[in-house]
């Protein structure tokens, strides 16, 4: 059974992992699918007024997606990342959520829990988690 994806939420944190996921989404997407690039900013970011940085990153993603003819939309929300992703996906009636994973250690996941794991457990639609290999993440200068 093949299901047409009409709306995919790509949750990004502007890391090298997100860059790789955006490129992958562009390559797998079709023109009928709406690709929503979602960033959940912390409440501190809202108070510091760094929306210009977010616009710059969204513009960079637009440049990555443009050659693929993707139907894209950008969204910025504030709050807890997992809750924000889940709430936005439900509100938009997303057919799929895509997000990257930084590969936290088992101890970190046990004590804190990862955004990807929480989204996978609670989402009402399929979730695709993309882990970027360590060498690719380091190449882009993030950890």
UniProtKB/TrEMBL annotation:
Q: Which domain of life is it from?
A: Bacteria
Tell me the InterPro entries matching this sequence: Rossmann-like_a/b/a_fold, Universal_stress_UspA, UspA
Q: What are the residue boundaries of the UspA domain, all occurrences included?
A: 6-131
Similarity field:
Belongs to the universal stress protein A family.
Name of this protein? UspA
